[in-house]
Structure formats: C-alpha cells, structure tokens
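Sugar transferase
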Amino acid sequence: MAKRFFDIVVSALGLLALAPLLLVVAVWIKLDSRGPVMFRQERVGRFGRPFFIHKFRSMRVDNAGLQITVGADDRITRSGRFLRASKIDELPQLWDVLRGAMSLVGPRPEVPRYVALYPAELRALVLSVRPGITDPASLAFRHESELLARAADPEREYIEVVMPAKLQLSADYVRQAGLRTDARLIWATLRTLLKG
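Structure:
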C-alpha cells in the first residue's frame, strides 16, 4: 500500500513538473520524422497480464525487425538517439505508473516473446510485482545495445546471456523489495543519468 501511494504521488508530481519538457520533446519528434509522438508496445505485467507500455517514439515508423536494439541501430531517428541516451524517451511511463500498470521501481517489463522463455520459478517470482521504470538490471545493463552489437548473433546473446543475468537481478530485487530499496535505486538511477 505504501509503495503504491509513493508511486502515485511521485508520478503525478513528475508529470506536472516535467510537462513543459514533455511538450517540447513531442514537438521535436513530430518535426524530426514522420509518425506518432508516442510508441506503444505490448509488454507482460504483474501476474502475467499484458499491458501497453508508453515511450516517446525514437525509431522510424517502419521499424520492423528485432525486438531488441543493437548498437547504432539504423532504425533510430536523429531525435531518438538523444532521447534514448538521456532516457527521456522513458518519461511517458510515469503515466503508466500513475494508472497502475507499472511502478517507479520494479523488474523491467519484457515482451511476450521473451517472457515465454523465462524459467517457470523465476517467471512466477518476477511477475509477482508490478514492472518498473528502473531496477538493478536497468542500471547494470545501461549499455545493453552496445554489448549486443559486439555479439555475432545479438538476439542469441540476449536470450542466452543478457536476459538470464537481468532476470536473476530482477529476482534478487523482488526478494528484498521495500521503500528503502526503491529510494536507493531511484537515487542511483538519477545519479547515473546526471553523470551522462
């Protein structure tokens, strides 16, 4: 209950405080490339329920291909490169937090294709909480796309190496989750972003 109250207050205040920035980013995206401002994608949420996550669009509308981003992906727009590097593209997820589909801190939500590959015991544990905007795996794999770019087969590297490591970090978080842990992770995320 305390965690949900914290999520509601912080996400609401965040959306209000960041409204001017969100508007500027929306205009930039529209001027930079054809297509909608927002990107919506189905992800797997708490208890395995699907939901649509919201981000600022950072790729061309004809972005068919892998469901992971690899290195200097040529699908990424000019504005999208900055938005991704700064993580500003993730800010619309404050709305997902406010409406209850996500939390500020929790395991990052994955697409159904990859959730289907989770080991059963870890799947049940990780999906027992709301997915989050940030978590230990997000911090540890901040440069995931560069890591995958060095692999001969990026998707295989993601499935066999990166995803299991992220899943274990997410499971460890769920086992010790609490407001104090969340506050530490939010601070660590902000500090990482400010350092660039």
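Residues 2-195 form one domain.
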